[in-house]
Design goal:
Layout (H helix, E strand, L loop, with lengths): L1 H31 L6 H13 L3 H27 L1
């Protein structure tokens, strides 16, 4: 009984810590889009932390990665033409 309670408490605490740290990084990244700072780097970092525990963040992180790959591909294509 005690082991089950401790296991549940550990999982709950882990989820809360991940949510707080990931959300903080995500909000800082959004703020850094208008303030001086590396917003475009911090936002994916926050999503990566949230993706440890939350499926919606994992899906959003995959979309961001695909978008970055597409932008990178287009830039390479533009350099080859020009």
């Amino acid at each position: 009984m005690i082991e089950k309670t401790l296991s549940f408490s550990y999982r709950s605490a882990k989820k809360v810590v991940i949510a707080v740290v990931g959300s903080t990084l995500l909000l800082l990244g959004i703020a850094f889009l208008v303030l001086p700072g590396p917003g475009l780097l911090v936002i994916p970092l926050g999503l990566a932390v949230l993706a440890i525990e939350f499926l919606w963040a994992r899906d959003l992180l995959h979309k961001v990665r695909r978008g970055i790959s597409e932008v990178s591909r287009r830039r390479r294509m533009g350099r080859q033409r020009g």
